[in-house]
Amino acid sequence: MATSGGPRHPDPVPATTGPVTVTTTTGPVTTTTTATTSTVTTTTSTTVLGGRARAALALDIGGTKLAAGIVDATGAVLGRARRPMPKTLDPEVTFAAAVGCLHDALADGGFGGPYDYAGLAGLGVGCGGPMLWPAGEVSPLNIPSWRGFPLRARLQEAFGGLPVLLHNDAVALAAGEHWMGTGRDARHLLAVTVSTGVGGGLVLDGRLYHGRTGNAGHVGHIVVDPGGPRCACGAYGCLEAIASGPRTVAWALEAGWRSPEHPAEEAGADGADGRALAAAAAAGDEIARAALARSGNAVGVALASCAATFDLDVITVAGGFSQSGPIFWDALRAAADRHTGMEFARAVRIEPSTAPNDVALRGAAAFILVPERYAWVG
Ligand SMILES: [Zn+2]
Question: Which of 39, 146, 195, 224 is the most exposed place for a label (fewest CB within 10 A)?
Answer without folding.
Answer: 39
